[in-house]
Amino acid sequence: MKLLEDRIREDGRVLGEDVLKVDNFLNHQVDPKLMAQLGEEFARLFRDEKIDKVLTVESSGIAPAVFTALDLDVPMVFARKKQSLTLSAENYTADVFSFTKQETNHIIVDKRFINEGERVLLIDDFLANGQAVQGMMEIVDAAGAELVGVGIVIEKTFQKGRQLLDEAGLHVESLARISAFNDGQVEFAD
Ligand code: 5GP
Q1: Full domain range(s) for residue 28
Q2: DSSP 3-state assignment of 70?
Q3: How far is the CA of 155 from the centre of ligand 1 (A)?
Q4: pTM above the 0.90 mark?
Q5: Binding site membership of 153 for ligand 1 (Cβ less than 6 Å)
Q6: Residue 138 burial (CB < 10 Å; 0-12/13-18/19+)?
Q7: Is omega for the bond preceding 59 within 30 degrees of 0, making it cis?
Q8: What number is the ipTM of this complex?
Q9: What is the CATH number of the domain that holds 57?
Q10: Which residue(s) pair with 62 in the sheet?
Q11: CB-based contacts of 159: which residues, under 8 Å, 6+ apart?
């Protein structure tokens, strides 16, 4: 998606070997107009999959996921990373090793919000090694729901996540695909 690639070129900062900082439009400050356009594009790419629900992980997946759900006219659910008094005792959980924080998060979804037989679309901000998506896959599986697609805002093709998802036979769509960081510059896959 050219619009997103242009924005990454303009505002993205490369940290070290393999991390992109995009905190002025996605990961801290959020550009709602851009998020709405990303949501529209995900909805267009997945409309034929007859999605019942969009699932993401807090916090950076929420903005693109909510606009996708708005366009598909379905609810959006986000997995929580912390237990809360407001969460019921009936949960699906999975462990996710965070690439950027280098710690394991326990992600949690209330059983009421993912139901057997539902067609679920996963959305996330980044795809690196695929741990976040795998955690969400476990939850969809445990609920007896069907995973019908994975939408990623920014994929780094040089990490192993995409291969993992392709091997699982999933319909994956990434709006920007980064093939390398070279001297602090972002290179996109064609
Ligand atoms: P994975 O689980 O695929 O290894 O990593 C995906 C998760 O790690 C995303 O949800 C995102 O929060 C974070 N992440 C991975 N790579 C990057 C990156 O280059 N930049 C930022 N800002 N977050 C990343």
Answers
A1: 2-188
A2: helix
A3: 9
A4: yes
A5: no
A6: middle
A7: yes
A8: 0.99
A9: 3.40.50.2020
A10: none
A11: 18, 127, 128, 129
Residue entry with tokens 């995009």: 22
pLDDT, one tens digit per residue, over 84-104 is: 777 677 999 999 999 888 999
Please tell me if the CB atom of residue 104 comes closer than 6 angstroms to any atom of ligand 1: no
- How many domains does the structure of the chain reveal? 1
Answer whether 6's CB lies under 8 Å from 175's CB: no
- Binding residue positions: 20, 27, 128-132, 156
Tokens of 151: 């939408």
Q: Closest residue (by CA) to atom 7 of ligand 1? A: 126
DSSP, residue by residue, 24-53: TTTSSS--HHHHHHHHHHHHHHHGGG--SE
Among the atoms of ligand 1, which is closest to the Cα of residue 26? 22
Our mutation pick for probing the ligand 1 site, out of 23, 30, 95, 100, counting the most ligand atoms within 8 A of Cβ, is 100
